[in-house]
User: Fold this.
Amino acid sequence: MALYDYACAGCGPFELRRPMAQAGDPAGCPGCGGPATRQYGAPAVSRIAAPLRAAMEADRRSAHEPARVTRTAGSGAPHHHPHGPSRPWMLGH
Ligand SMILES: [Zn+2]
Assistant:
């Protein structure tokens, strides 16, 4: 007997202990009794990877962020004074 991962279309992934000979056969979902197909290591990985992937998503998002973050942070420092009307009459004295 070995533990295999199956996934029901309606209920999601679940684990089932079966003889290796039946590992490839569709299993009955314990939740709804419907057919569940074997997941070749995917659920176990995705179960671990879900938070990891979320972290990676956040990482990927923050990787795009710096350009905006540094820009907003930097925009505060250098004050861009729009060139106002230079008063030529003031230069003469
Ligand atoms: Zn089900």
